[in-house]
Amino acid sequence: MSETRKIAAILVADVVGYSRLAAADEDRTLARLRGLRSDLIDPAIAAHRGRIVKRTGDGALVEFRSVVDAVRCAIEVQNGLVERNAGLPPDRRIDFRIGVHLGDVVEEADGDLMGDGVNIAARLEGIALPGAICLSEDAYRQVKGRLDLAVRDLRPKELKNIAEPMRVFSLQVGLAAPAKPTEPSATERPSAPRLSMVVLPFANIGGDPEQDHFVDGVPESLPTDLSRIRGSFVIGRNTAFTYKGKHVDLKQIGRDLNVRYVLEGSVQRGGNRMRVNVQLIDAEAGSHLWAERFDKPLGDIFDMQDEIVARLASTLNTELVAAEARRAQEAPNPDSMDLYFQGLAWFNKGMSRDNLVQARSFFDRHCPPTLAISTRSFDRRAWTCSRASYPLRPILWRPSRLPKRS
Fold it and tell me: How far apart are CA 270 and CA 343, in angstroms?
């Protein structure tokens, strides 16, 4: 049996309290875990050139070419989980512990990895706090000075079945590194990210306290669904609810939170019916972009809430893309993502030949076909292309798939 000994960056990740989550609701937990793997974890690993060696039930062992790639992947995953857990009660959140080590490993003929490098990474994962990333001293040395996160020195630690104590560092995901002194400057505030938004607490028209649970339920649940939109940035529930009951200028909220869009709404009960009004606001201009009204007969509160949240998330996905496309049309020098949103807006208009031809023209400029399939050398634009427009290529780049002109 042939073996290969080498130095590798090893990442080990595991779900915190998986047995408890599965015992409470196994089907929902498995469904959410599969969704996280397909939408967040696996794409992050691929983007940073990782190789999934094996999955360990609710965890994974991943090999990277460099510690920098491994740590960047870990940070992307942990930040993504923070967004997806926003608004969920603690007993339903899926949190990961992650350990990263640079060390000697043995690669078996079937691609499996063994040795101290793997064992140490697994022990580091075991001592990490939920949502944190633990690095060995060897790994931290490779990324020191490249991180914008707060780092805590845990000092030498005794790790199970590891002969010598190891110095361990913990990355505090979500906490910025201490700011370095800088000279005052008159630079402009950075522009808000694309697809950035906040869902404000809804107003309870009539003030019936019995409605408060439902009124708060929609804006509490909606950010979780909106955060699944690729490339979106959604302000968390706790921050958004600091504006509850306050009359604040929406443009000021946009500046305070550095977001492009604000979603506000109201709930009113009349007899045996419930009416929900929502409006999407351009936070920079203060103008209305879209509005919708839901009139529902009173029934199961949770079913009503789930239905409204699902319909809102689906519709907002299209409306936000359209809003980004309108912004892109006014850009003097549109970049790759400006072209992507314009192409996607045409695609969302319907499967007519003219719409698809227009979409393809923008996607071809956003991501030339030769670039999307070039995978030998990693290129951030190529990865963006493959994630964004590549899934649409079977429709857009095969003439036989296009609808015939009527």
Answer: 43
Measured in whole angstroms, the distance separating CA 182 from the mean position of its chain's CA atoms is 31
Residues 61, 71, 166, CA angle at the centre, nearest 5°?
A: 75
Provide mean pLDDT across the span 384-398: 48
CA count, 13 A, side-chain hemisphere, 330: 4
Query: 201 and 317 share a domain?
Result: yes
Q: How many CB atoms lie within 10 A of CB 395?
A: 15
- Residue 206: which CATH number? 3.40.50.10610
Give first-to-last CA distance, the chain, whole Å. Answer: 63
> Looking at 142, 176, 210, which one is the last position of a domain?
176
Identity of residue 248: V
Tell me the pLDDT tens digit for each residue of 270-282. Answer: 778 888 899 998 9
Instruction: Enumerate the H helices of 227-300 as residue ranges.
Output: 237-240, 250-257
The SS3 call for residue 290 is strand
Please check whether residues 9 and 151 belong to one and the same domain.
Answer: yes
Statement: the pTM of the whole predicted model exceeds 0.85? no
Instruction: Give 199's contacts (C-beta < 8 A, 6+ positions apart).
Output: 219, 222, 223, 226, 234, 235, 240, 263
76 with 157, same domain: the answer is: yes
Amino acid identity of residue 139, one-letter, is A
Q: Is 104 helix (H, G, I), strand (E, B) or coil?
A: strand
Tell me: pLDDT of 376 over 80.
no
DSSP state letter for 391: G
DSSP E strand boundaries for 177-317: 196-199, 203-205, 233-234, 261-270, 273-282, 288-297
CB atoms within 10 A of CB 402: 17
87 and 227 co-located in one domain: no
The last residue of one of the domains, among 325, 345, 360, is 325
Q: What percent of the chain has pLDDT above 70? A: 83
Residue with tokens 């970049």: 335
Same domain, residue pair 143 and 63: yes
Burial of 143 (0-12, 13-18, 19+ CB in 10 A): buried
- Are residues 205 and 140 both part of a single domain? no
